[in-house]
Design a protein that fits this description.
- The chain has 525 residues and is an alpha+beta fold.
- 51% of the residues lie in helices and 9% in strands.
- The strands form five sheets. A four-stranded mixed β-sheet has the order 1-2-7-4, with helices on one face. A two-stranded parallel ribbon has the order 3-12.
- A hairpin with a 2-residue loop joins β5 and β6.
- α9 (193-209) packs across α13 (281-312) and α11 crosses α13 (281-312).
- It is globular and about 90 Å long.
- Bound molecules: protoporphyrin IX containing FE.
- Residues 116-117, 129, 132, 136, 178, 290-291, 294-295, 298-299, 302, 358-359, 362-363, 386, 429-431, 435-439, 442-443 line the site of protoporphyrin IX containing FE.
Length: 525
C-alpha cells in the first residue's frame, strides 16, 4: 500500500471514530430512556427489516423494559409497554402526550393536514373531535342501534347462504352500519364493491402516512432539496390522487343533494346543513373519509379475529353458547336487553380485543412539550408509541397470554373468574387518554349484537385438513388474521328457520342501496 492510500484510510477511520464518539456523547447528553444501540446518523432504521413494527417493539420491550427509546435517523422514538406508563403519561400528563408526530411532510401532502388521526393536538383537532363526538359519543351512539340490530340479522342470513364468504360478510356488516348512519345507504351483498375498496384504500393510505414510511421522514435534511431532486413529493401527491377521489364521490354527491333537497336523513347531510360547523371543503372531505375508514375496517378486522378464535378455542365458545341458550332460550334471537345477563359473552368480547388486538400499537402519539419521566428526558416532538401489543402479550399482566381465556375479564365475584388475570379488568385495544377511540361505544355495540347472534345461530369449526395459518393480513395500523377457512353451520334446523324468518322484517327505515354510487365510482377507477 503506498503512503497516500494508507493516509486516506487512517483519515476515514479517524472521521468514523469521531462521528461515533459524538453520537454516543450526544445520546448521553440527551439522557433518553435506555434502548437498543443504533448506528450514527441512521439510528435503528436497519433493525426493522423483515419484521413487523409491533412484533419487533414487543421483542425489545422484553429486553429493555417497559419504557425504552430508539432512534430513527435523527428522531427519538419512545415506546411505552406497561399500564403504569400509559397511566402516568397518556392519562395524567395527557396535555403533553396527545399530539401526533410532526416529522412527516410527506404525510401532510397526502392528508392535506386535514385527517384527525394524524392531527396535532390543538384547536383544529378539538373542532374535529367535537363534531365526531356529536356523532359517536355514548348517548349519540344509541342512534346506531336499529342499524346494528337489522344488519346483524342480514349477516346471519348471508352466513347461512354463503358460509365461506365470512371474511367479506363481516366487512359488509360493519361497512353497512357505518354507511347507514353516515350516508343513509347500505350494502346488500357480502361482495359489495365499496367495503372491499375501503379496505384497499385504507392500506394504501396508512402504508404511506405512518411515521417512517419515507426515508425523508427520518432524515429531514433531505426535505430541503428542491422538487426536481425530491421525487418523493410527487409520489405523495400521487398517493392522495389514488385515494381521495373515491371519498370525494360521497362528499360531492351529498353536497349536491343537500343543495337540491333530495338528501336522505344522515350524519353527513346534517353536518353539511349545519351552518355552525367551521370546516373547510378539504376538511369535510377528509372527515368523511376518516369516519368511513375508521368505522369500517377496525370492526370488520376484529370480527375476522372472532372467527379465528372460535376455530381455535371451541370450549370457550361452547361456554358462551350455553350462557346464551340459558338466558335467551331457543325461540328468539339475542337482543340488547340480554346483554347485562351475559357476562361470559361480554368477557369473550374483551378477551378478543386482548388476544388479537386489531390495532396492536393503537396509533402513534407525539409530545407537544418536553418532559422528564423516571429521571429520563423525553424531548418535545418525540414520537411516543403506545405498545398495546406488549401489554396484551405480557404474562405479568395476563397470565398465559397466548391462551384465549374470557375468565380473566369476569367480575372477580363470579366463581368462574381467574383471580388477578387482567389489570383491573381492562384491555387497551381502543387506546387511552385524550386520543382514545371516539368510536368505541359504537364498535362495542356492533360487536355484541352480531357476535351474540352468530353464537346463538351457528357452530364455527375448523375445515378438515386446513388449520388457520399463523400470521397477519393488513398493514399498519390495522392487522387482521391471515386469510383462513372454517365451517359455519347452523346449530340446528330450527335456528336456520329463525334466521330465514327474521332476515327481512323490521327494517329501521327505507335505506338507499349503495349501488346508487356504482356508476360514479366506476368513472374514477
Ligand atoms: C373494534 C373497533 C375499533 C377499534 C379496535 C378502534 C381502535 C382505535 C384506536 C386504537 C385508536 C387510536 C387511539 C390513540 O391514538 O391512542 C382509534 C382512533 C380513532 N377511531 Fe377507532 N377503533 C374502532 C372503531 C371505531 C369506529 C366504529 C369509529 C367511527 C365510526 C372510530 C373512529 C376513530 C377515530 C375518528 C379515531 C381518531 C381519534 C383521534 O385521533 O383523536 N373507531 N381507534
Amino acid at each position: 500500500m503506498d503512503t497516500s492510500n494508507s493516509k486516506f484510510t487512517i483519515y476515514i477511520l479517524f472521521s468514523l471514530l469521531i462521528i461515533f464518539v459524538l453520537y454516543i456523547a450526544s445520546n448521553i447528553a440527551r439522557n433518553l430512556p435506555n434502548g437498543p444501540p443504533g448506528l450514527p446518523i441512521f439510528g435503528n432504521i436497519f433493525d426493522f427489516r423483515g419484521s413487523l413494527l409491533h412484533v419487533k417493539l414487543t421483542e425489545w420491550s422484553q429486553q429493555y423494559g417497559d419504557v425504552f427509546a430508539y432512534k430513527m435517523g435523527q428522531s427519538s422514538v419512545i415506546v411505552l409497554n406497561s399500564p403504569e406508563s400509559f397511566n402516568d403519561l397518556f392519562i395524567k400528563k395527557g396535555q403533553k402526550y396527545s399530539s401526533r408526530p410532526r416529522a412527516s411532510n410527506q404525510a401532510t401532502l397526502i392528508t392535506e393536514g386535514a385527517r384527525i388521526v394524524n392531527m396535532q393536538y390543538g384547536d383544529l383537532w378539538r373542532e374535529h373531535r367535537k363534531i365526531i363526538h356529536g356523532f359517536l359519543g355514548m348517548q349519540n351512539a344509541k342512534i346506531f342501534l336499529p342499524y346494528q340490530e337489522y344488519e346483524s340479522r342480514r349477516t346471519l342470513k348471508h352466513l347461512l347462504d354463503e358460509p365461506d364468504a365470512f371474511f367479506q360478510e363481516v366487512a359488509r356488516y360493519s361497512g353497512s352500519v357505518t354507511f347507514s348512519m353516515l350516508m343513509g345507504c347500505r350494502f346488500d351483498r357480502s361482495d359489495a364493491f365499496i367495503p372491499q375498496q375501503i379496505g384497499k384504500k385504507m392500506q394504501n393510505f396508512f402504508t404511506h402516512i405512518r411515521p417512517g414510511a419515507w426515508l425523508v421522514d427520518w432524515i429531514p435534511i433531505l426535505d430541503y432539496l428542491p422538487d426536481a431532486l425530491a421525487p418523493w413529493r410527487k409520489q405523495a401527491v400521487e398517493i392522495r390522487r389514488q385515494i381521495m377521489p373515491f371519498y370525494l364521490v360521497f362528499y360531492e354527491q351529498m353536497k349536491e343533494r343537500v343543495r337540491n333537497g333530495t338528501a336522505p336523513d344522515c350524519f353527513v347531510a346534517r353536518v353539511l346543513q349545519n351552518e355552525g360547523t367551521k370546516l373547510s371543503e378539504t376538511e369535510y372531505a377528509h372527515l368523511i373519509a376518516e369516519l368511513i375508514t375508521a368505522g369500517t375496517e377496525t370492526t370488520a378486522t376484529t370480527l375476522q379475529w372472532f372467527f379465528k378464535a372460535a376455530v381455535l378455542f371451541p370450549e370457550q365458545m361452547k361456554h358462551a353458547q350455553k350462557e346464551i341458550d340459558r338466558v335467551v332460550g331457543r325461540n328468539r334471537l339475542p337482543n340488547w336487553e340480554d346483554r347485562e345477563k351475559l357476562p361470559y359473552l361480554n368477557a369473550v368480547i374483551n378477551e378478543l380485543h386482548r388476544w388479537a388486538t386489531a390495532t396492536p400499537l393503537a396509533f402513534i402519539h407525539a409530545t407537544s412539550e418536553a418532559d422528564v419521566y423516571r429521571g429520563k428526558s423525553i424531548p418535545k416532538g418525540a414520537t411516543v408509541i403506545p405498545n398495546v401489543n406488549a401489554i396484551h402479550k405480557n404474562s405479568q399482566y395476563y397470565p398465559e397470554p397466548d391462551k384465549f381465556m374470557p375468565e380473566r375479564f369476569l367480575d372477580p365475584r363470579d366463581p368462574r373468574s381467574s383471580p388477578g388475570a387482567s389489570p383491573g379488568g381492562q384491555h387497551f385495544a381502543f387506546g387511552v387518554g385524550r386520543r382514545e377511540c371516539p368510536g368505541r361505544h359504537v364498535a362495542d355495540a356492533s360487536l355484541y349484537i352480531v357476535m351474540s347472534r352468530i353464537l346463538w345461530a351457528f357452530d364455527i369449526t375448523p375445515k378438515p385438513n386446513s388449520p388457520p395459518p399463523d400470521g397477519y393480513s393488513g398493514a399498519f395500523p390495522v392487522f387482521g388474521p391471515a386469510v383462513f377457512q372454517c365451517a359455519v353451520k347452523p346449530r340446528n334446523e330450527a335456528a336456520a328457520q329463525m334466521i330465514r324468518e327474521r332476515a327481512e322484517v323490521d327494517r329501521p327505515k327505507e335505506m338507499e342501496d349503495s349501488s346508487i354510487y356504482d356508476e360514479l365510482l366506476a368513472k374514477i377507477q
